User: Fold these one by one.
Assistant:
Number 1:
Amino acid sequence: MTKTKACYKLLPADYVSLLALLVSCIGIWFLINGFVKFAIICGGAAFVFDALDGYIARRLNQSSEFGKQLDSMIDVINYPVASALFIQLVLMPNIWGALVGFFVIATGILRLVGFNKNGFIKHKNKLYYRGLVVCHISLITALLVLAVRFISIPQIVIALIILVPASLQLSSIRTRKTGALFVWIPVAVIVGIGALLWL
């Protein structure tokens, strides 16, 4: 009998990816049960773990194709699905919210599959993504959730604010790859503090 190796051997970075998924799922539970403040905080924490998995993989020199695919699968839950739920349950709790949510999930999945296939664009020794990335849409959604706490925003405006950037995920514009640990993590912390103070 021939022994075959398991195709799902997990490296340290993969466990951090799964931790991001766990926190995201807890956040979704909070959201469904009406605890929007804690849902946003969990979303920010999930992003921090998502950023850390890549950092750990690079530091340990343990990047793998399996880890890349796992990260993208988890990103679907952490960003497009979570964003769609915020849209449907908080921002646009109607059929239009369901349609906008579908569009966010569909463009997010297409964007992630495209990235796995094509990778980064290298230009003048700098790395760029093709189009906007999924966490941009999540950030926009979170900021809208905070904004509607203070001002009334027509749903058509909310839809446009979300649909236009979601569409740009599939565009050919270049988005500079920044150091997530030093740029995006502070943004996630600020949004989390905003949720604690204002929601």
Note: The chain is about 70% helix and 5% strand.
Number 2:
Amino acid sequence: MFTGIVESIGKVKDLNKKNNSILLKISSSISKDLIVNQSISHNGVCLTILDSNHNSYKVEMVNETLRKSTFKNVSIGDLINLERSLLVNSRFDGHIVQGHVDEVAKCVKVSKAKDNWIFTFKISNRNRNLIVEKGSITINGVSLTCYDIKDCIFSISIISHTFQNTTFHLVHEGDKVNIEYDILGKYIEKVFSKDKLLK
């Protein structure tokens, strides 16, 4: 489990595409602290460490991950938001993040406010009920708050610290991002959907 608080930005150093998966070699400032079998969030996608050394580590993405995330278009040199899994004795600074991407959304607008940046995204119609005003959402592994929701469109505000210390400074209008909806919202939506079917 994660909280959506990015620790480091990793860089794709190498990749090996197989039939149904991609093996990535990533360098980052936390590489030296990683061990095999650890779970790390990569732009919101939970992946298992297969091999690691002082400078880099390797992870593999299977077909399901590639199908539901932006990693199907990953390239050498890409930058990735990284977060290690939550420690039991840590502060819970974000919200509950599983590292299971629900869909890819499109950035439809980026604007600079006085002290922050405003990003607007469009999601699929089938998931519009999973976003609520002032509710939590994970975008490329970052815990954020939705607002100004209109049907399938919503905005988030990014402070300077987050803009500079995550890959949000690389997100532009037209770009695709990984979305994970709040797990509590998904459970509630499922319960109410079943209730409607029973009536």
Note: Residues 138 and 180 are 5 Å apart (CA to CA).
Number 3:
Amino acid sequence: MTANRVSCRHGSTLPGLFAEDEVVQTLCAAIDEGLAPVISILDSLPAYFDPETTRDDLVEWLARWVGVDLDRGPVPPDRRRFIKGAVALHAMRGTSEGIALGVLLWFGTRPEVSESGGTGWSPEGEAPLPGAAGPSLLVTLRVPAPDAVDRRVLDSVVAALKPAHVPHRVVVEGGGS
């Protein structure tokens, strides 16, 4: 009897008893065909969770996973870079380092962040407290083309990252690289 052989990828790994069984080979081929897409997706699963390699239609979904709402307010020019740094940014939110990281992720340039202080220590007892009496924050962004930076966006990025009670000011200057 000459039968059409069913091509089953894993059929050859079955015990010899099933190697010639056409029903088993057909069933194995059907399972191979049904599971191949699932196995392919599982094999490439890490690529779905990496902002640099995920498909364009999954970028916003991935952004929501890390707490970045791309539907509200302006969208960062390099969304993938911003999403990749979002987890670290959440851990540093409210700190001068977090503000600098957020501006770097958004604009691609690290700013100078100056704050009034208010927390510190001294090896000498009863030393004067560092900084000014009132809280303040100055963020200076130095870029080659200052007019290309939307100051309102910079202001909103800083406002979203700083402590709510601290007044801030943003300055954009020429001279960055």
Note: Residues 109-177 form one domain.
